[in-house]
Amino acid sequence: MATTPTEETKVVKPTVEKPPTATTITTKPETVEQKVTVQVETSTLDDQQPVDTTTNESIESDQLQKIKEKLVDTFANFPDYISQFYQTYQRQLIVIGSLILIILTFRLILGFLEALEGIPTLSTSFELIGMGYSVWFVYRYLLRKSNRQELLDKIQDIKADIVGKKS
Asked: What's this model's pTM, rounded to 2 decimal places?
């Protein structure tokens, strides 16, 4: 198709199909020779907003400064935080500490007894001592009524010492 100087030249602009989330920025040509419009496509996610990097860096710097100040304050006042925590949870800490101490003591005693049981002559002698003590206890406190009453009185005295009053 030939054109004459009197006819107008038509410029066909290429069209580009864009996805629904794409943003198109159109700029004008800088020189006369450029007849096609330059299109720049920038795709963004559905919910993502454009980010200004200069303000973003200052926000991150402010956040880091606040975190740093909070950490310095926390470590500077750490003994105060510990004492306040102890005063608030004193009873619970004592109960937990006592339970841990009881469990450790129980395990220590069991470990000691297992070590003693590993020695052949000691385990046999401990069994004989235990049987002898059981026979003596039955003979001393359980055979006669007066001795049983004496045992009950001793149990009541021990209970009163523990509780703090006589029942």
From this structure: 0.37
